[in-house]
Amino acid sequence: MFDIIRADPNCQGRRGRLRTAHGDVETPVFMPVGTQASVKALDNRELEEMGTQILLGNTYHLSIRPGLEILGQAGGLHRFMNWNRPILTDSGGFQVFSLGKIRKIREHGVEFRSHLDGSPIFLGPKESMGIQRALGSDIAMVFDECPPHTASGEEVARAVKRTIRWASECLEQPRADGQKVFGIVQGASDPRLRERCARELVAMGFDGYAVGGVSVGEPEPEMLKAVEMTVPHLPEGKARYAMGLGTPAQLVELVARGIDMFDCVLPTRVARNGTAFTRKGTFAIKGGAVKADFGPIEEGCPCFACRNHSRAYIRHLLNVNEILGLRLVSIHNSHFYLQLMEEIRTHLAAGTFAEYRREFVGNYVPTLRVRAAWTVNQSASVDSAKSP
Question: Smaller CB count within 10 Å for the chain: N or C?
């Protein structure tokens, strides 16, 4: 299922290929987030043209709207959204964190109150895997408990215990044809719990493994440490997925730490606030400094927005609340993330990743605005952090 094409001699980064029922995925890879069967502000043609290999969908949200009856009649998620490339679906486990105010954790699963109308919803290993089977995703994630950053050591230990038990129950459930299942390692910042969770999941023999419990409010050094204490306990020959991460510089650093797959809401979320990513960092296009700037968002960027429109024009659209403005920034930001991963793959294959990493991270300066948006993403309590 996962082949390592080349391992970097200077770090843990590797160039790989993930095989799925809907085609191969070249790794490292970034997965645009399509919570509601759509990546916000982008259509499938645009996603394909910018090189999207695989999308992410949300089990909890899709089971509510449009619901399994409609998705079943449509023939599954791929046909419903007319997407012929791979899809990974999260399990609803992240909503155990993000919807903390409207759920109760039980030993056999989680009782939710719908964020829409308050109606009762129950998700456990059986229910989550059943939904993902109906969706027909290429990769299904196990149902897990993702504790908040502020959880006590005792709470994290209980979450790890449930996560391990629920993972075993997930493996017992039937799957869609060709569907793979990834385990999720929890344990917060406790190295012993991380190791225990990873070792027990690896013993179960999943098709791939995710580092969970990151992007839940912790500072960046702690997030990196959680990945570092998890990766050594994961098998070399299986794909590794860091859930809900991150900024461009974080992605480069996480590739160096052995991660193969990423998803994050930042590209489209900050675009709606008029913030654009560039190789030097980010800037607010709404600002008066670009009022008469007729250059592209980023010189040399081949995306549609940069080839056809100026900063001044896009600023105008944003400031008069024209939908096209946020679409153009969403196109640029999403293309930026996908191009970044393509460059990483190229340098890993050529053996020049160390130089690329040093130059990119050294030149990238995140702005206060993006840091604020990142904090919002981490601490969202009602909307899923998988909602771009």
Answer: N
Q: Which two tokens stand for residue 369?
A: 């605005």
Identify the H or E element spanning 121. strand 120-123
The pLDDT of residue 38: 98
Q: What is the pLDDT of residue 285?
A: 95
Q: Amino acid identity of 348?
A: L
Task: For residue 72, give both structure tokens.
Answer: 């079943």
- Which residues does 52 contact at the CB level (< 8 Å), separation at least 6? 32, 85, 334, 338
User: In this predicted structure, what is the pLDDT of residue 96?
Assistant: 85
Cβ 6 vs Cβ 15: under 8 Å:
yes
The residue type found at 221 is P
Backbone angles phi, psi at 337, to 5 degrees: -65, -45
Q: What is the pTM assigned to this prediction?
A: 0.94
Active-site option among 8, 138, 190, 263:
263
118: Cβ contacts below 8 Å, ≥ 6 apart: 102
Q: Rounded distance, CA 175 to CA 171, Å? A: 9
Q: Which domains does the chain have, with CATH numbers?
A: 2-265 (3.20.20.105), 271-370 (no CATH)
φ, ψ at 109 (rounded to 5°):
155, -160
Q: Which of 90, 138, 144, 190 is catalytic?
A: 90
Considering only CA atoms, give the Rg of the chain: 20
The answer to whether residues 274 and 284 touch, using CB atoms and an 8 Å cutoff, is: yes
Smallest Cα–Cα separation from 18: which of 31, 27, 8?
Answer: 27
At 367 the pLDDT is 72
Would you call 260 a catalytic residue per the annotation? no
Structure tokens at 133: 């089977």
Is 3 designated active site? Answer: no
Please list the rounded mean pLDDT of every run of 10 residues in the chain (388 residues): 97 98 98 97 98 97 96 98 98 88 93 91 97 98 94 97 98 98 97 98 98 93 97 98 96 98 97 96 93 97 98 98 98 98 98 98 75 41 40
